[in-house]
Amino acid sequence: MIHPRSVADTVDAEATVDLLQDLVRIRSPYFEEAEITEFVYDWLDDRDLDPDYHHVSEPDITGFEGDNVVARLVGDDPDAPTLLLNAHVDTVKIVEAWDEDPCSGRIEDGKLYGQGACDMKGGLAAIMVAFEALADVDLAGDVLFTAVVDEEGPYGLGADALVRDGYTDDCDAAVVTEPGPILCQSDVENPALVLGARGRFLYDVEVTGRAAHGSQPEKGVNAVVDAGRVAEALDELEVDSHPQLGDGSVCPLFVEGGGQTLSVPESARLMADRHVVPGETKAVVREQAEAAIESLDLDSEVDVDFREAPADDVYYGPYVTDPDHPLVGALDGATREVAGVAPEVGYFSSVGDFNYFGDRADLPTVIVGPDGENIHSAGEFVYTDDVVEVARIVTAGAASYLG
């Protein structure tokens, strides 16, 4: 039997941090990932880990063309489980408020700074070194490594393509190394296992009133005013609750319309973010919004829809992983061996590629990620010790689950 501690010890701390620094120094906002994708491919190829590019194309809305990087370790038992290891290579667009190079990779007091350092190049470095370590272990099951594009973009196109193109079909479980504790529903500290996440829809609502001269507003129907009333109604929607994931939520994002001087606006549009828990399906959240708007008895016509997407199934569904699943047990044991403590358990408050795996692909999915601060903003950093610890936990947990 493979002992988790011995496998974890093969992860070199200095090499892991050096890799992380190299990754952070590559500028890679979403839709601009070509350089970092090539770096990940070459890093795997230099270690004879047989990477492949998996092309991602979305011509209709974004015009995006890019590549995931995938690689597989084949175990010796075809009946053993296959584990997906996932991280994304992209960051948000570079934030202008940085007072230093946002891709510096500067290390100070155990913190490595840079855009995307925590979200999620720390997690990317962790699965890269874990995958390398697992290549030297006799495994019964397979490991599928996936470094994907566009997680921070509008649709998660990299992970969507993995699911759509069948890469997840033979997988039995997934580990995603997103930064977990900082975005959990409750206060959680590493080492932690995050066992689920809320889902998300984006309401896209069109409001049609009637134009009139601005000096005689009573002769028209002001779509902007009615859109404001719709936003307030959505903000006050009653939402469901879940024992692990907490409450759903609604957050109006913007109202736009009008613009002509001396004219009553005849049209307006608003969008609202709707985070959901299990049971709050697309049909349910549409019906709730329509009922709330109908109760306003507006003079405007209101059409409730959802954000345009490349396909009907491109949305983030909520999921919860059974704490008794063997992968959770393997990661729990690995955490105790590596960190010397039992992991805390949390649930994610927002969405990411893990929703595609946990909901659409129906894989038991666990988030195990390094912590830091200031994600998506200037001054973002990740704790380097956390990155090394996550790499060791994932290595040991995967070996235990697949061994």
From TrEMBL:
GO-annotated molecular function: hydrolase activity; metal ion binding
Keyword Metal-binding in record: yes
Boundaries of every Peptidase M20 dimerisation domain copy: 196-297
Coiled-coil ranges (or none): none
SUPFAM superfamilies in UniProt: Bacterial exopeptidase dimerisation domain (SSF55031), Zn-dependent exopeptidases (SSF53187)
Keywords: Hydrolase, Metal-binding, Zinc
Hydrolase found in the keyword field: yes
PROSITE patterns on file: ARGE_DAPE_CPG2_1 (PS00758), ARGE_DAPE_CPG2_2 (PS00759)
Cofactors demanded by this protein: Zn(2+)
PANTHER family found in the cross-reference section: ACETYLORNITHINE DEACETYLASE, PEPTIDASE M20 DIMERISATION DOMAIN-CONTAINING PROTEIN
Record-stated family: Belongs to the peptidase M20A family.
Protein name, entry field: M20 family metallopeptidase
Organism lineage string: Archaea, Methanobacteriati, Methanobacteriota, Stenosarchaea group, Halobacteria
